[in-house]
Amino acid sequence: MLSIFTKTFKELTTKELYNLLQLRSEVFVVEQDCVYQDVDGKDEKAIHVLGYKNDNLVAYTRIFKPGDYFKEASIGRVVVKENERAYKYGYTIMKDSIEAIKTRYNQSKIRISAQTYLKQFYNNLEFKEVGKEYLEDGIPHINMIRV
Questions:
Q1: Homologous superfamily of the 3-146 domain (CATH)
Q2: Distance from the CA of 22 to the CA of which of 1, 48, 49, 59 falls in 20 to 30 A?
């Protein structure tokens, strides 16, 4: 069972910030063998959705209001610790992120830039592909919208 916390950048403790940056680096840089600038200057505008299991951060996303990342509200940096993926925490953290967008921004239309191999995962959450596949940091991605 995940405990979900939703916080602005200023509400994050130093430990929470360290843990979320560590998890993002562990998966996006090390596991996916992708050298890219994860600390992109957008975290201060984001709302951070943190999923804890036994006091350990195992799932995370960041959400943006319309205009801060895309024209629409958006979810990014969707990540689940590798040894916790069997528990379907990706669905849990995404559903909470979608709900946070509805609650905080009164928005239902959400755009994501999804890694192409995760299309079915996002389709299961009612996201539909829009446009053509493209490379982002050397990894195939596709834009997806949920209305």
A1: Gcn5-related N-acetyltransferase (GNAT) (3.40.630.30)
A2: 1
Find, among 142, 139, 147, 138, the residue nearest to 129 by Cα.
Answer: 142
Q: For the chain, give every domain's residue range.
A: 3-146
Q: What proportion of the chain, given as a percentage, has pLDDT over 90?
A: 88
CA distance 30 to 27: 6
Quote the CA–CA distance of 54 and 87 in Å, as a whole number.
Answer: 14
The pLDDT value given to residue 34: 79
Cα-Cα-Cα-Cα torsion 129, 123, 114, 147, nearest 10 degrees, comes to 60
N- to C-terminal Cα separation, the chain: 28
With residues binned 3-state (H G I as helix, E B as strand, rest as coil), the percentages for the chain, rounded to 5, are 35, 35, 30
Average the pLDDT over 58-76 and give the result: 97
